[in-house]
Amino acid sequence: MAQAERSPANEDLAQIRESVRALCAKFPGEYWRDLDRERAYPTEFVAALTQAGFLAALIPEEYGGSGLSMTAAAAIMEEIQASGCNGAACHAQMYTMGTLLRHGSAAQKARWLPAIASGELRLQAFGVTEPTSGSDTLNLRTTAVREGDHYIINGQKIWTSRAEHSDLLLLIARTTPREAVTRRSDGLSVFLVDMRLAQGTGISIIPIRTMMNHATTELFFDDLRVPAENLIGEEGQGFRYILSGMNAERILIAAECIGDAKWFIAKATGYAKERIVFGRPIGQNQGVQFPIARAYAQMRAAELMVGAAAALYEVGRECGAEANMAKLLAADASWAAADMCLQTHGGFGFAEEFDVERKFRETRLYQTAPISTNLILSYLAEHVLGLPRSY
Ligand SMILES: Cc1cc2nc3c(=O)[nH]c(=O)nc-3n(C[C@H](O)[C@H](O)[C@H](O)COP(=O)(O)OP(=O)(O)OC[C@H]3O[C@@H](n4cnc5c(N)ncnc54)[C@H](O)[C@@H]3O)c2cc1C
């Protein structure tokens, strides 16, 4: 069945959600707490998701994936977060794969996709952000220069998450100098870099310790040789290829935020019913009830936008505005729910064993990555409302 024909109507979403929950139940808070302390990667969790086929949800069946819809993929990511687990360890595979699927040659797809679907190859790293350009992606400085049947890569990326736990890196670099292109978005190209061959021969990976356990890194390229056959699509068109995958990224991350919000709301509700202060459950006080109810309403509203964006995406319709709004509203809903949950728990919210402080730190990321809130607002202001360009 073609991807566009997939719809929630012919998938058993309840069954998918139940299976994800059952898998996640094997990775309780204690598992995540131990990893968090050590800043260690959840290798067993990612392996279990891969073996169950969940990370290959969006890979078509002809390449060994499950060929599910965006709605189903979003449900998988949501359930992971709602179970208290952290999909940030592996969510990139779901959306970076799309660039290869949509713009790769038949030979590239046949070579890489089945191995990604089976878990033999991990495509978890996506190198876009650079230290000097930040949100201004078109200003990136990493270069790729053609030399015979190779490209020679030089430059630096920052915040390349999971690079140490990925076999492949989807990399964007400049192949034509900015001064030599008419449109700012021209002259960038996308490569699939085989990290197994690259390490020690032109690429160094430096981990960055962050406020949460995220396995993010800095990458340095020093005359890294990448075979020309690893160029995805046409040289110079890479920015368009990356953009085409961003709606999927926004929708899936928004779904993760909905899952986080559900986890915080369930955790706060449970605690508010059980915690007795002044001789009654704290949840009997409207001052405690109302923030929980408000967080619930906010989450449900954001959930509708995530559903709307996924529905447009899977029938191949333009969904830039909806995907961006879904990410904005869902990230706000998860952050509001996180704050509410911490407050509901009083002092205990700060104790590691309740998992609230860990999830609080984890969900905060989505105000900034993969795109920061201001940049979404700017997109809506300029591209939806027609306000003058600010940059
Ligand atoms: C833990 C983590 C993991 C990440 N993983 C990846 C990854 O795997 N791959 C990858 O490529 N990147 C990754 N990123 C990078 C992430 O996408 C960027 O941090 C994000 O896009 C913001 O860019 P920046 O940090 O350079 O902030 P800057 O661009 O320096 O912006 C700083 C602040 O200024 C605001 N700002 C900037 N310009 C404007 C403007 N014109 N108008 C209004 N406000 C503006 C921004 O909204 C932001 O709040 C990750 C980041 C983190 C923290």
Question: Please, could you describe this protein's structure?
Answer:
Helix content is 47%, strand content 15%. The chain has helices at residues 13-24, 29-38, 43-51, 70-82, 92-103, 106-118, 195-198, 238-274, 286-314, 320-344, 356-364, 373-384; strands at residues 123-127, 143-147, 150-158, 168-174, 188-194, 203-208, 216-227, 231-232, 276-277, 280-281. The strands form 3 sheets. Strands 1-4-5-8 form a 4-stranded mixed β-sheet. Strands 2-3-7-6 form a 4-stranded antiparallel β-sheet, with no helix packed on it. A two-stranded antiparallel sheet has the order 9-10. The protein is globular and about 80 Å long. The two termini are 42 Å apart. Residues 1-5 have low confidence and may be disordered. Flavin-adenine dinucleotide is lined by residues 126-129, 134-135, 159-161, 210, 214, 216, 365, 368-372, 374-375, 378, 390-391.
